[in-house]
Design a protein that fits this description.
11 helices; 3 domains; two-stranded antiparallel ribbon; 65% helix
Amino acid sequence: EFALEMDQNNNSLLLKALSPTICVAMNGPKRSQQILNFKRWLTVVVWLVMGLTVARPSWSCFHGLEARTTSARQTQAGDDSIRAVIQQAGNADNDEVRLDYLRKLQKQPGLDASFKEDLTKLITQIDRWLYEERLDYFGRQVRRRKDFDFQIPESSPLYPLTWLYRGRMVIWYTMESGGVWSIAQRRREFFGIARGFFEKAARAFPENKIVRMYLGHPTGPYKHYEAVSGAPQWAVYQREGLERLADIIEW
């Protein structure tokens, strides 16, 4: 027979063996240790069967646990919010829209210092890609390494965003460099590396149409040209072709 008694002084659960047969059954010099071991074993069994805990924590422990839980939830919510913005930025087809997402993220309070540093680096590089007067600033590095170092670690959640730009940089250099473009083997090598970047970017940001375009998936025209009423079909197509060519030249 066993009874569970709650100690009101320290709120701990005490298990007391009331049957004297336990002591009688255990004889010899190690009797005390055997009794102690038996009580420990029995206590564990009772706890497991009844779903009890070793001790009831004080209210201060509950408050501390609640505070830590709340903090963890807030951290998780912040991480989810950051990941959501990064996903929006990566799925954006327009570099200016992507840059706008990242600048808004930069203003978000409570960002980790290392993350904020990586974010500043990425914003600087995208801004440079958009507004640099000459796009040959990455050419020397791409020629040597077939890549461009954004100085953002792979562990950073921002790292996948670099794949789109690194792929485009390699493509740009391949098409601009006669020493690469005119040699089929080198051209295939550079294109293969660029494709690897785009494939990673497509997996990370599946809604990005520009990434899929580089992988051979047509995006379709974004602009519709109204046909002149009564014009023959060949003239409609010719005018549309000239208008689209003019848009590219002006861009």
